[in-house]
Amino acid sequence: MTSTEDITFNPESLEKVKELMKRYPEGRHKSAIIPILHMAQAEFGGWLSVPTMDYVARLLNIQPIEVYEVASFYSMFNLQPVGKCLIEVCRTSSCWLCGAEDIIDHLEKTLGISVGETTPDGRFTLKAVECLGSCGTAPMMQVGADFHENLTIKKVDELLEKFRVEDKQSRYC
Amino acid sequence: MGKKLLLKNDHIPGINTLEVYRANGGYSVLEKALKTMSPDAIVEEVKKSGLRGRGGAGFPTGLKWSFLARPEGVPRYVVCNADESEPGTFKDRYLMERIPHLLVEGMIASSFALGARTSYIYIRGEYFYIARILEQAIDEAYKAGLLGKNIFGSGFDHDLYVHVGAGAYICGEETALLESLEGKRGNPRIKPPFPAVAGLYGCPTVVNNVETIAAVIPILEMGGEEYAKIGIGKSTGTKLISASGHINKPGVYEIELGLPVEEFIYSQEYCGGIKGGRKLKAVVAGGSSVPVLPADLILKTAGGEPRLMSYESLGEGGFATGTMLGSGGFIVMDEDTSIVKNLYTFARFYHHESCGQCSPCREGTGWMERILHKILDGHGTLKDIDLLWDIQSKIEGKTICPLGEAAAWPVAAAIRHFRSEFEEYVTHPERIRDIKHYYRLNASGVTAG
Amino acid sequence: MPKVTIDDIPIEVPEGTTILQAARMIGGDIVPPAMCYYSKLKTSGGYCRTCIVKVEQGSEKDPRPMPKPVASCRTTVMDGMVVRNITSVENLEARAGVVEFLLLNHPLDCPVCDQAGECDLQDLGYGHGAQETRNDFPRREFEPIDIGDKIKLHMNRCILCYRCVKVADQLTDGRCHGVLNRGEASEISTYIEKAIDNDFSGNVIDVCPVGALTDKTFRFKSRVWYTNPIDAHRDCPTCCGKVRLWNQGEEVLRVTARKDQWGEVQDNEDGSPAWICNTCRFEKKHINDWVIEGPSKISRHSVISANHYENALRNIKADTLKMMGAKPHGVKVELGTGALDPNNNK
Q: For chain A, does the N or the C end have fewer beta carbons within 10 angstroms?
């Protein structure tokens, strides 16, 4: 785990944090917590460690528990380390009707892991998630901010290859 | 061809940019409104239009606006609910992605009408890339003087921000959304007070869906009375329908309310019929929360009248034989679909999305999911079906927010209309169709892609 | 003043009174049980849904019934409102449903729970619960944890009433515990191992309606019905110093705040709630630390309400006679617990 001292946003992000806080009325800067947590997750390894959350608490001048409460409520925040590439496959109704479970099966087989697991090399984490609003283009998966839609087995294979080559950390922002 | 108001320009290349949007008449309605209309006159037009909230509840927008408290010296807020998360619904996403400026224009006009100096668009975290599109549009608007100080020289100042969520269906409930916007867990508030009196930061607030706010622009363009002539009865105007499932042409369609359901499903202009020429089994007409209806009841009311895409017609027969227009999330299931399994995906969804604040929903949603899983696992009993029925009845109406109903109604409707399928599963477990839909990918030829 | 009718009993109450408060003014069996509402904590209530009632008539002005049952603790009475609680079978069934949900994942470990005998959930289960559970799935489980060296958290027993969170917010500065995760996985926690360290943190034990937060200094020492509650006070620099001692003979086993008939901390003379500090609660366990006032009067419907003193039996008899006229079914409970009380023979 990174020590508390190491955790500081880069200057550009710090500027962004300041700008974010200004979007809300005086004394209501806690409103910026979710956008800032997104930034923190993206900048500090794809998940929110305790030191990261404590850092956000200091930035917002609130109690650490207030950050833990929020971070643990929303499903996009990872409170445990995840693989560099986080694959989230939708499985609700329309996606299920159009074959999402085939996609999940195929990913499990190809990556050699089950849903919720990370490959031993730490490159991929596979998650099954609930409706992402891509019902008309089902089945789909989200990787970082990108929606990959109308999936087929072939398309999934091509995407996996692309992710392997790119070797980028998934980030929503 | 039905009338198009919101998506009339969605096919124009570059319509997402300010330049093209303005070249096609964009912001002229706002200009006219700010220069020639009083805020109250705008509220009046919206009232006359008969516009009803497009997020799902269908509450008259003008009425909601008129409830807004206006105490002296207290700021008021307009918040756009772009948390679209109801399974089967993706219309707001489409609208924001294609024509972001329509929402921005609508936000400014609505805020002017309601006297809000600042407004926010709360968008679900998973739509991050759309948040970027909106931010770009807002940026362009600021640079063109359409946001900020003294818009169109009217003396009206306005700031508009995008606020991203982080994955929580419950934040589509307006008070949970406000909590989340205040930087807290998305727990719905106990009402009263309603947001119109004490909303964001305790100030009077109006929360409206993306489509509702966008609809303000065509209403102001044509006038409330003209808008009210479109549609049927109290279902005025047009509605965006998200069509998905086993149809040939899934996508977002703008329909004139009152369109026959049969036409919507089968005509080439809309869904283009059932995939693979199969038969229709059932439809969830308004997003996962509304009761599923079997083919005969979605096409015709119990009285034999053609069912129409309108609040009233879909609701005809109550829950015994009818359903709701809801958010317009239209999920079509063909003859091979297992209703129990589809219900299971809904139950899993609501279990996952319950905020956990009140006991019936926190405890009941997980319980229902587990029972459905047990049935699909081949270990269900006839008693389990009755138990499911009883649990949903004990959740419905007992919770703080409507998520309780949203979780209960699909269960009730599936049992009401498809009890025999449940019974078959528990008495002949060997007949349970594989939980996976392998044939779907292959049979539809998608795999070849 | 608005007039409200609850279970056919009319009462006039001050503007802004909730249905629950109005019912408490009437008293007796028509008072809805409340698991999460706590009049001394701002914004409490509304979560557990136990106190739901049926509003048959909204008000004089708008006589329409309310479409759904409402949480009586968070619904303000209107003039002419007509409310049904125990006179509506439908309402009692709805409440039984809520009780079933509250008990669904509850471990039912009363035999090893320090709260047993003064537990609101136990009382509720007796009053409204079913004989058997219909849940055949494994119950949700959490490991018990220490929140500092004085407080034990058994999350398994928690019903997520939020009272302890509100205590921390409203009585202490720098809350360090809260509700984490969401839905069924919600839990009260500090997230990282952390002691709740504040002079008034021990009050979370007193407000907990179940055995989720218990006093480690009392852990497994005795069942509450084997202890004698005694009101006592001391000159405390931090709090009001007015407490209830739970003794066995001269031995002080436990110190709590004094509670009223609704299980809430009593008020001081100035009307402020008589919360007690951690020193009084955890450190002052010698009888000489205290000025004894006398046996506590406890008027709650639970095992400890039997009381253990010579005059208790007299009180019970008087209560019984009073109740026999109105609600014969209540008699059994009162006499039953009294007769079973082993300390009566002392």
A: N
The candidate with the shortest Cα–Cα distance to B92, out of B146, B131, B48, is B131
Per CB-CB distance under 8 Å, the chain B contacts of A35 are 163-164
Residue B13 lies in a domain: no
> What is the predicted pLDDT for the residue at B264?
98
Tell me the pLDDT tens digit for each residue of B404-429: 999 999 999 999 999 999 999 999 99
For CA atoms B437, B242, B138, A36, the dihedral sign is negative
Tell me: do A8 and A65 sit in the same domain.
yes
Q: Which residues of C touch A65 (CB under 8 A)?
A: 175-178, 190-191
Which range, of A158-167, B40-49, C298-307, averages the lowest pLDDT?
Answer: C298-307
Residue A142 pLDDT: 98
| Same domain, residue pair B314 and B361 | no
Nearest-Cα distance to chain A for C201, in Å, is 15
pLDDT per position as a tens digit, B55-107: 999 999 999 999 999 999 999 999 999 999 999 999 999 999 999 999 999 99
A102 touches chain C (CB under 8 A): no
Least Cα separation, residue B76 to chain A (angstroms):
12
Say what the pTM is: 0.93
* CA B409 vs CA B87, B321, B390, B396, C320: distances in Å: 14, 13, 12, 8, 46
Residue type for B298, please? Answer: I
State the total domains in chain B.
3
Asked whether the predicted pLDDT for residue C189 surpasses 80, the reply is yes
Query: Tokens standing for C246?
Result: 């739970």
**Is the CB of C160 less than 8 angstroms away from the CB of B362?**
yes
Q: Is the per-residue pLDDT at A82 higher than 50?
A: yes
Strands C3-6 and A141-143: unpaired
| CATH architecture observed for domain C110-133+140-218 | 2-Layer Sandwich (3.30)
Angle C119-C122-C125 (CA atoms, 0-180°, nearest 5)?
150
Compare all CA atoms of chain C with the CA of A72 and give the residue at the minimum distance. Answer: C181
On whether the CB atoms of residues C7 and C85 are closer than 8 A, the answer is yes
User: What is the number of other CB atoms lying within 10 angstroms of the CB of residue B315?
Assistant: 18
**In whole angstroms, what is the distance from residue B180 CA to residue C49 CA?**
23
C18, C42, C49: best to mutate for the B interface, most B CBs within 10 A: C49
Report chain B's C-alpha Rg in angstroms: 22
Residues of chain C with CATH 3.30.70.20: 110-133+140-218
Cα-to-chain-centroid distance, residue B247? 20
Per the CB < 8 A criterion, the answer to whether C11 and C22 are in contact is yes
Average pLDDT over residues A91-108: 95
Q: Measured between CB atoms, does C166 come within 8 Å of chain A?
A: no
Contact with chain B for residue A136, Cβ under 8 A: yes
pLDDT value, residue C16: 95
Is residue C224 classed exposed, middle or buried when 0-12, 13-18 and 19+ CB atoms within 10 A define those classes? buried
Integer Rg of chain A from CA: 18
Percent of chain B with pLDDT over 90: 94
Element (H, E) at A23: none
Fold of C3-97: Ubiquitin-like (UB roll) (3.10.20)
Q: Is the pLDDT of residue B335 over 70?
A: yes
Q: Where are the alpha helices (DSSP H) in B253-294?
A: 261-266
Residue of chain A with shortest Cα separation from B338: A97
pLDDT at B255 over 50: yes
Domain of A115 in residue numbering reads as 85-166
Cα distance between residue B394 and residue C100, in whole Å: 10
- Give me chain C's average pLDDT, please: 87
Cβ <8 Å between C49 and B359: yes
Residue C181 contacts A where some CB pair is shorter than 8 Å: yes
User: CB-based contact (8 Å) between B87 and chain A?
Assistant: yes
